[in-house]
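Subject: Dihydromonapterin reductase structure
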Amino acid sequence: MTSPILITGGTQRLGLAIAKDLLAQHYKVIVTYRTKKPSVDELTALGAILIQADFSTQDGLSKLISDIKSHTKSLRALIHNASDWDQEADTEDYNTLFQKMMQVHANAPYQLNLAFQDMLSANDIVSDIIHMTDYVQVKGSKKHIAYAASKAALHNLTLSFSALLAPKVKVNSIAPALLMFNDDDSAAYREKALKKSLLEICPGAQEAVKAVNYLLSSDYTTGQTLHLDGGRHLK
Ligand SMILES: NC(=O)C1=CN([C@@H]2O[C@H](COP(=O)(O)OP(=O)(O)OC[C@H]3O[C@@H](n4cnc5c(N)ncnc54)[C@H](OP(=O)(O)O)[C@@H]3O)[C@@H](O)[C@H]2O)C=CC1
Ligand SMILES: Nc1nc2c(c(=O)[nH]1)N=C([C@H](O)[C@@H](O)CO)CN2
């Protein structure tokens, strides 16, 4: 009996591509979503279990933990992908912004990892936790200060949980820089963003898919970060 892979925020962009690829490999997949959209039905038709969840509140997080435990007794992998890319320019309520970024990007993965550690260790093979962090985890960001701090916290969870859960569970970060533009990104933004890396491309969601599959297949990678940044750190 193969255990399912749980991916959070898997109904658009990188998460959707990862979920579809795992389904195509015949993994059992549980996907969380916050907002109903056509891909919820698309993934259900492909055989995924879709669970509505909003991690921005403790009640929402506690409900998700309960819902997951009602669906399975084990997990092959837990992929923390859900995220909001909020910026300080959009608000003056910095307390709410900071709390929300830390809640979604650090507190939710922290509590889900602790709640599901036994389910992850219940397999005959080594399981995986993957934290989708960000290039800015080590660099910071002038325009997304709270977001960057929360991604740094998420990466620190990689270090702690890899030590705590070894050898039954590998725990790694995937730290992308630009992988996908957003639909409302201007031509000027896109041109400027492309020039921030050495390779000067926007590779698309499959770059994240390939990284996830490497980590799932690895026998010897834990506590690490896969940097998907086109050489931006050297520019
Ligand atoms: N795209 C890129 O180039 C980069 C991405 N990353 C990271 O990779 C991951 C995937 O990126 P991307 O695909 O662009 O992500 P998105 O911005 O598309 O967000 C992914 C999903 O997160 C869900 N989500 C947001 N807040 C909550 C919440 N409070 N509770 C539950 N779900 C929530 C959303 O759900 P819904 O839509 O249902 O509301 C959304 O579908 C993220 O962690 C991101 O930070 C890092 C660097 C670059
Ligand atoms: N949740 C999200 N996080 C991030 C996004 C996004 O669209 N959603 N996008 C980026 C940018 O691509 C950035 O890496 C470009 O420099 C970062 N995080």
